[in-house]
Design a protein that fits this description.
The complex is a heterodimer of chains A (360) and B (634). Chain A is mostly beta strands and 360 residues long. Chain A contains two helices and 30 strands. In chain A, the strands form eight sheets. In chain A, strands 21, 22, 23, 24 and 25 form a five-stranded antiparallel beta sheet that branches. A four-stranded antiparallel beta sheet of chain A has the order 3-2-1-30. Chain A has a four-stranded antiparallel beta sheet with strand order 7-8-11-12, with no helix packed on it. In chain A, a hairpin with a 4-residue loop joins strand 26 and strand 27. The two termini of chain A are 34 Å apart. Chain B has 634 residues and is mainly beta. Chain B has a single domain, classed as TonB-dependent receptor, beta-barrel domain (Maltoporin, Chain A), CATH 2.40.170.20. The longest helix of chain B is centred in the first third of the chain and has 11 residues. Chain B is globular and about 75 Å long. Chain B starts with a helix and ends with a strand. Classes of the chains: A mainly beta (360), B mainly beta (634).
């Protein structure tokens, strides 16, 4: 079986080389392409396998849904997509139900291999060296607790899971900084720091449930800490700064109504962090707030607001803000494009549950 | 995004029930069949009853099989013999009441029923009532209602039936029906056990373009149930009946089709246990019928051996049907329910009382012109629930060989929000309003009989609005339910049947067709992109064609059904292919004195159609079933 897989990956690599070389010959010049293409992950409904990827062309202002399915003879992803990642031209889709990681070419959306499947409830990933590190919830325990969470270690060449690392319960966002991994344990209130030189680890205690990371322009690592769907009190949620030299906490800034998913985006300068928030119940409005990392202050007014905001992204190249409206996952969602002043530029209809953005 | 899972669980997690019965006795074919109590008050509604041949062929099947093969109602089956939910006239899965002797089987926590969890073997008759009927049946009967019956036959002596089936993919069914009695009391027993390995194969193309045949795993089903009834004539004026139904349904949750060989096919499993008890006393007075009853329902679901969802209900009902004159009947009554849920996310010690009151008047205005006025209301703590009124009328024209009935009905119906909607953790909202349906329909039925031929042809057209449809959405950082959506449904249904008596047998030909347009008028927010589109998993077209021939000791029948294309939850981009399925059945009976043996063979999905009902859930190709029946004292 392994031999067959190896043969396949060689065949694909060769096919890929032929394709890229033919592209090269037609283009010419050393132009660095602007990142004006936006891949949108539509998570899909749990158990329906209807996750998909859309492509938004920022220059023309058009959207194409199901680009991966269409590029692969109608063969769709067949799962709920949790997150997307790119590394050296390879796109990774981290999927739940069915639990797997799919590999596709960021250039032409063709699948590059069969998915890696020996993995349980994978969430997010990062790359360090020639390995990918994937946060995995592991199987559910009683009353939907998570007692067997882990980090799966994948060899980028063989695309096989070769090892696992320990972490806390419900690991969500993950980043690698200076040969260390920072893992947000969202079912507890800790960040696990793993030193990759010896796989030793320690935990940093936080106010509430950590979700996702962003590194600002001055080298401070920020992590969103949320109530995790009502588990932690609202006055404990916000942004926590971590000093990655000492792995200790710096300042903490309260962000009222910070979204439980804690998704965030950062601009090219690393100065402004964009955050999703919700007005307190019984209001149903969702909003985007900007946090200035230089002054450690949160904007006094929302930059934009609307119903059902679910995801956020920022195109560093063109300074455009992207917000996803998932329509409660009950039907087709939308994406909205804004400039940095919150002026609406465009909106487009996507598939089910638009959530994450990736710029290419 | 973790919310996707928990929301899915709240909304689609499981299965489950409600209370009470009333009846009218009709003599038909020498056997006492009890007309459902509401029928005389709903003469403007389309009602179709199963015939014995349909239930015989599907003896080891489920309510989902029956609905798919014999009605135009759409069943969304998430894998073979997996969770099957109904879409009746374009409504949602919780807009159809499924009743057993007045008990609504729909889960109180989720609001719907698994049609594959209802085995046909236990029942003598299935009645499908089309259109709204909350004015008579209470919550849930917006799109229609389904009634499972097993009625007193006042057996004198012993009657025993043993059934054994062997089918493809490890399908083994064993069942016993035993009727005992002396004409005054009667015991009816139904027991079955069914195991289905469900390891059929399907074809895939992997990411590298290679084709593989995949064996379905993690889709096993194991059910058993016991249904016991005691009926006792107390005098010539009344009888008492006690009915109990206990069952266990275990099924693994069939996973999505794999995208590459070796992909994980392990998954969840669900174990349902139910106990339903009904005691009813019915007394015939000179000018009326008194009906009273008590019921107890226990629904228990264990998810992945760890998480429990449980409800218990106790109910009592009383009603009196008063024949004011030959032409005027009034029915008035009420019921009360005490509900005790046990769900990990609800507050401890949560209990609830619900009460229903109802009043119906049926009047014969002229000869053959029947008019009924009905109203019902449910009282639920914190939740607004409307009065559901209806006007129902029919007019019969009798000609030489022909009976032509015209019908019309206008109705408001409702659905009480589920316990999950109202009490789930900090998210549930006890103050949600009930969903409401406003519907009108017209139809006519033509029955023609001449010599050896008879024909039955029915046309129905309907229009319906479902408003305050509940949807969950994020709000203040938690997902909460809201009365948000509005749906408009309209359509037509045709049913026809032709019978031809031939020497030593008969020939029967049946056809049905339904067109349904079901469109979202208001969505989850002001600019919801799905507005204006057909609802997901609501086919516009369905049709069926059946033929059967009985000749001497032989029987041959063919059943075909077509389900038109559906849209996925992405109603704009995802189309799911239509499918056409053919099943054939052949049987022969051998009589030995008063006893009979029948041997039956079936070929299911004869054309080996590769199809999916729900996208990405594999369904089996051609497969086979062999059935043996031993009937003692037929």
């Amino acid at each position: 079986m392994n031999r067959i897989n190896n043969f396949m990956s060689i065949a694909v690599t060769i096919a890929g080389l032929v394709f890229f070389s033919s592209c090269d010959s037609s283009s010419g010049g050393e132009e660095i392409p602007m990142k004006t293409g936006v891949l949108i992950v539509n998570a899909g409904n749990f158990g329906q396998g209807n996750g998909s990827v859309s492509f938004y062309d920022e220059e023309v202002g058009t959207i194409a849904n199901n680009v991966i399915k269409d590029a692969n003879n109608g063969s769709d992803i067949g799962a709920t997509i949790e997150s997307i990642y790119q590394h050296e031209g390879v796109g990774f889709l981290v999927c739940n139900a069915t639990d797997k990681v799919e590999f596709f070419s960021v250039e032409d959306y063709k699948y590059l291999a069969n998915p890696t499947t020996s993995i349980s409830q994978p969430r997010y990933m990062t790359v360090a060296g020639d390995k990918a590190y994937i946060t995995c919830w592991g199987p559910w325990s009683k009353n939907f607790t998570l007692e067997e969470s882990y980090i799966a270690v994948m060899d980028l060449n063989s695309k096989e899971i070769i090892d696992s690392l320990e972490c806390g319960s419900g690991p969500e966002g993950i980043v690698s900084v200076n040969n260390k991994l920072y893992i947000a344990n969202s079912f507890e209130t800790t960040v696990t720091v793993v030193n990759l030189s010896d796989d030793s680890s320690e935990k940093i205690d936080l106010n509430a449930a950590p979700q996702h990371f962003a590194m600002d322009g001055s080298g401070t690592l920020w992590v969103t800490v949320s109530s995790n769907f009502g588990v932690h009190p609202e006055d404990k949620v916000g942004l926590q700064a971590i000093n990655t030299s000492t792995d200790s906490k710096n300042s903490f800034v309260k962000i009222p109504g910070l979204s439980d998913d804690g998704v965030l985006a950062i601009d090219g300068s690393g100065e402004n962090i964009y955050l999703l928030t919700a007005q307190p119940w019984p209001a149903t409005e969702t909003e985007v707030f900007v946090f200035d990392t230089k002054t450690n202050t949160l904007g006094s007014d929302a930059l934009v607001s609307g119903e059902n905001f679910n995801g956020i992204g920022f195109n560093e190249t063109t300074d455009k803000l992207y917000v996803a409206d998932a329509a409660g996952f009950s039907g087709n969602g939308k994406i909205m494009v804004y400039d940095v002043d919150g002026l609406a530029l465009d909106n487009q209809i996507t598939s089910i549950g638009p959530f994450h953005f990736m710029f290419k | 995004m973790k919310i996707i899972f928990s929301i899915s669980f709240i909304l689609f997690g499981c299965i489950g029930f409600d209370a009470i019965s009333q009846m009218k006795t009709v003599e038909l074919d020498g056997v006492t069949i009890e007309a459902l109590p509401f029928e005389k008050f709903i003469s403007g509604s389309k009602i179709k009853k199963s015939d014995s041949l349909q239930l015989e062929i599907l003896g080891q099947g489920t309510l989902a099989d029956y609905m798919q093969q014999n009605t135009t109602v759409y069943i969304k089956e998430q894998g073979n013999k997996m969770l099957a939910s109904v879409s009746f006239r374009g409504t949602g899965s919780s807009h159809t009441g499924v009743f057993w002797h007045g008990i609504n089987l729909n889960s109180l926590t989720l609001g719907n029923s698994d049609f594959n969890g209802v085995p046909l073997f236990l029942f003598d008759e299935i009645t499908v009532q089309y259109g709204g009927a909350s004015s008579l049946l209470g919550s849930d009967a917006i799109g229609g209602s389904i009634h499972l019956s097993s009625n007193p036959r006042w057996t004198d002596g012993v009657k025993l039936q043993l059934r054994q089936d062997f089918g493809s993919f490890g399908n083994v069914f064993s069942g016993i029906k035993l009727d005992l009695g002396n004409g005054k009391w009667e015991s009816k027993t139904r027991i079955f056990n069914r195991v289905l390995r469900n390891d059929f194969s399907y074809n895939i193309t992997d990411r590298l373009g290679d084709n593989f045949e995949i064996e379905q795993k993690n889709a096993e089903v194991h059910n058993y149930a016991l249904l016991q009834e005691f009926n006792r004539k107390i005098s010539s004026k009344g009888y008492l009946s006690l009915k109990g139904w206990m069952g266990k349904n275990f099924h693994q949750v069939q996973p999505l089709m794999v995208t590459a060989p070796g992909e994980d096919q392990t998954g969840d499993e669900i174990q349902d246990k139910n106990l339903r008890l009904v005691g009813a006393y019915k007394h015939f007075f000179k000018k009326g019928i008194l009906q009273s009853g008590v019921g107890y329902v226990w629904d228990y679901q264990l998810f992945n051996k760890t998480d429990v969802i449980e409800t218990k209900r106790l109910s009592a009902n009383l009603s009196y049907e008063w024949n004011l004159s030959d032409k005027t009947v009034i029915n008035a009554g009420g019921n009360a329910k005490y509900i005790v849920p046990n769900v990990w996310s609800y507050e401890e010690d949560l209990t609830e009382w619900r009460e229903d009151v109802f009043l119906s008047l049926s009047q014969e205005i002229l000869e053959h012109w029947q008019l009924s006025l009905n109203a019902r209301k449910t009282f639920v703590p914190f939740t607004e629930s409307p009065v559901a009124p209806s006007i129902s009328t029919s007019y019969l024209i009798k000609a030489h060989d022909l009976d032509l009935t015209f019908r019309a009905q206008v109705e408001r119906s409702y659905r009480i929000p589920t316990f999950n909607d109202r009490y789930w953790g900090a998210q549930g909202r006890a103050d949600l309003k009930s969903e409401k349906g406003y519907s009108m329909e017209v139809g006519h039925n033509l029955v023609w009989e001449k010599g050896d031929y008879s024909m039955d042809f029915d046309v129905a057209a309907y229009y319906m609005i479902v408003d305050d449809w509940i949807a969950w959405k994020p709000s203040g950082n938690l997902w909460r339910p809201f009365n948000l959506k509005k749906v408009e449904a309209s359509g037509i249904e045709l049913n026809g049947k032709l019978n031809w008596r031939i020497p030593h047998g008969k020939f029967e030909l049946g056809g049905m067709y339904a067109y349904n347009r079901s469109v979202l008028l208001q969505g989850i927010s002001e600019n919801d992109p799905s507005v204006g589109y057909q609802l997901p998993y609501t086919p516009k077209h369905r049709f069926g064609l059946n033929a059967s021939l009985i000749f001497k000791k032989y029987r041959f029948s063919i059943n075909n059904y077509y389900t038109g294309k559906r849209y996925g939850i992405d109603v704009i981009n995802e189309e799911i292919d239509d499918f056409f399925i053919t099943n054939i059945t052949m049987s022969k009976n051998f009589s030995i004195g008063k006893n009979m043996i029948s041997v039956e063979g079936q070929v299911l999905n004869l054309l080996d159609t590769e199809y999916q009902n729900v996208k990405r859930y594999a369904m089996p190709g051609r497969n086979y079933l062999l059935s043996l029946n031993f009937i003692i004292n037929k």
